[in-house]
Amino acid sequence: MTIFAQNLDQYLKEHTSPEIASTVMTLADSSIAIRDLLNKGVLAGIHGEAGGQNIQGETQKKLDVISNDLLLNALTQNSNCAAVASEELDDISPANQDGTLLVTFDPLDGSSNIDINMTVGTIFSILPYHHQGQVATETDFLQAGKHQLASGYFIYGTSTMLALTFGAGVSMFSLDPASRQYVLINERITISQQTAEYAINASNRRYWLAPLAQYIEELAQGDTGVRNKDYNMRWVAAMIADVHRILVRGGVFMYPFDTKIAGKAGKLRLMYEANPMSFIIEQAGGASTDGVQRIMDIEPTGIHQRIPVVLGAKQEVEYIKSLHDQAGILANGEKI
Ligand code: AFP
To answer: In which residues is Mg(2+) 1 bound (predicted)?
Structure first.
């Protein structure tokens, strides 16, 4: 792999506006602080439930709470951010009225992985803010994903990486622990249209809709079934890790509609997970739907809205849509 040896700050100067560059640098600085805490692990007192007390009698916070606070404080101090919305907070946090950007983030995706020393990450999305001089409200955030100006994620795995898009391809950076700088390692990430690998929590099988159940059954039949080839399955239980794997070696990821919890249209959040990851996946040449409809076309109705997600290799995503179309049902099971 070619190492371009260009640092993130230099890359940002060349590829985006000063406002977005400054906001991404704020996110990147916070990610390095989060990664430092993750590396210290149990020794940093970050494992376990929030709400306990340390030896000084101070409240101990779980790392997802600490990460949330870190990002929130840093972003609200950035003059370009009009407001911030976090998966961890009920309400949005207005910041600087003259800012031109809105930022949403999931501070630690896959946080149930922290205590088992597995991969987690931070996902973010940057949207335009149109009401300078006024205090931003939740309504300002309710923009379809196609309006995102930038999105990306920091993945804290065996190494720390950043995937980033401004709508002109996806670039990947790796954190150099010595210089504490993100270094560009790949300027054009692309996803293969086909795959032989899929990711789904198969324990939910009995709650899936018929088209999705049929699809997974076809894959499981491998070279004895209609797909005529064997498939491999992986599930990290952190979307960030499953999506990163797809960017690196291809695949299809599904957290589909299921009937497990009445009234929930899926597990993943549109504004914090589905939209930013869809932007990355599409920009890498993949596709992203709720099973039927392009996710980035969906008009959000609430900041914490949940949505089914099917993303990755274009041919597989389109095939899943065709199964829903043939069955005459929408991704949420309603009849067309
Ligand atoms: P946590 O952040 O609570 O660990 O949830 C992670 C997540 O939202 C997403 O990153 C995973 O793909 C998905 O949940 C895993 O869900 P299951 O627990 O159903 O496998």
So the answer is: 87, 106, 108
d(CA 213, CA 216): 5
Using only C-alpha atoms, the chain has a radius of gyration, in whole angstroms, of: 20
Q: What is the pTM of this model?
A: 0.94
Query: In the prediction, which pLDDT does 2 show?
Result: 53
Locate the ligand 1 atom nearest the alpha carbon of residue 64 and give its number.
2
Which residue among 64, 87, 108, 109 has the greatest number of ligand 1 atoms within 8 angstroms of its CB, and so is best to mutate?
109
Crossing angle between the packed helical segments 18-40 and 63-76, to the nearest 10 degrees: 160
Per the document, the length of the chain is 336
How many CB atoms within 10 Å of residue 139? 11
* Residue at 253: amino acid letter: F
Question: pLDDT under 50 in the chain at which residues?
Answer: 52-60
Residues 100 and 19: their CA atoms lie apart, in Å, by 8
Q: Give the Å distance between the CA of 248 and the centre of ligand 1.
A: 20
d(CA 166, CA 187): 12
The set of protein residues with a Cβ atom below 6 angstroms from ligand 1 is 109-112, 201, 237-239, 255, 267-268
